[in-house]
Amino acid sequence: MEHAQDLLKQKDALENEIRELELDLRSHGVTKTEALVDSEGFPRSDVDIGTIREIRRSLVYKQNDLKELMRQIEHSLAVLHKDASQDKGDMDLKVETPTLQRPFARVGKVALNSPASDAGLSVGDMIITYGSVNERNHDNLRQLVTETAENVLKPIEVLVSRVINGKPQTRALVLTPRRDWGGDGVLGCYIVPL
């Protein structure tokens, strides 16, 4: 239990660091994917290229660390639930086994270099949870839209089911909606209800 709590504290700290890096990048007047050369291929003189590259590098590392941490949290919680259900017979604990949630939406299209692409969303992914939104409360995706609007520049935990080598697998992803990625919307993907 303590291990899972430590992981969650690490996740919160890492999310704050990512937010700070994104704000720092914006303060330099660029995005994560914006070109640092002019139309003739020369380095831009209006930005500090070295600093921006370092911030981008740190941001990529932190986002990768967050993805790995989310996988560890998912594993730790699964072990915790398994242990709790095994201990249920020994102790008088009331541990509810979580019901398997079904997907409520599907990813239809993902734009290159978009927030959805950066998070690892793929065409065909089936969305099980999107922040606090799930199959029971999505209200024909209206709540998904609200969750996105309320979390621009904030990480949203997305649990998806994806078919890999013919077998469905669950993946925990972190999606940070943002407007400055160079395309339409804040996600860069189409999500359709099932």
Low-confidence stretches: 88-99
The gross shape turns out to be globular
Helical content band: 40-55%
Number of strands: 5
Number of helical runs?
A: 4
* Residues in β-strands, percent: 15-25%
SS-derived structural category: alpha+beta
Write the layout of secondary structure elements.
Elements lengths: L1 H26 L21 H39 L17 E6 L4 H5 L6 E5 L11 H9 L5 E9 L2 E9 L13 E5 L1
Helix pairs in contact: 1-2
Task: Explain the overall architecture.
- Helices cover 41% and strands 18% of the residues.
- It is α+β, with helices and mostly antiparallel strands and 194 residues long.
- It has four helices and five strands.
- A five-stranded antiparallel β-sheet has the order 4-3-2-1-5.
- The longest helix is centred in the middle third of the chain and has 39 residues, at 49-87.
- Helix 1 (2-27) runs antiparallel to helix 2 (49-87).
- The chain is globular.
- The chain has helices spanning 2-27, 49-87, 115-119, 142-150; strands at 105-110, 126-130, 156-164, 167-175, 189-193.
Q: TL;DR of this structure?
A:
With 194 residues, the chain is of the alpha+beta class. The chain has helices at 2-27, 49-87, 115-119, 142-150, and strands at 105-110, 126-130, 156-164, 167-175, 189-193.
Properties at a glance:
41% helix, 5-stranded antiparallel sheet, 194 residues, single chain, alpha+beta, 18% strand
